[in-house]
Amino acid sequence: MRITGNLNLRPHLFPLILSIVVGLVVLFMRYWTLPHSFLYLFWHVLIGTTVLKRYLINPFMIDSISDIRFSLLITIITGFFIVSLVKSWSCFVKARKKTTSAILPLWINIITIFVVIYGNYPSIFRDFYSNFKPMQEVVQMVESGQLTFSSIYEIYDHDSIDIVDLPTKYKNLSIADIRGETTGTFYVVRGLDKQINLIAFIRTAGTDPIGQRYTAFMYKPRGKSISPEEIWGINVTTPSLEIIEVKKITTPSLNPDKANWFWVDVYED
Question: How far apart are CA 206 and CA 70, in angstroms?
Answer without folding.
Answer: 14
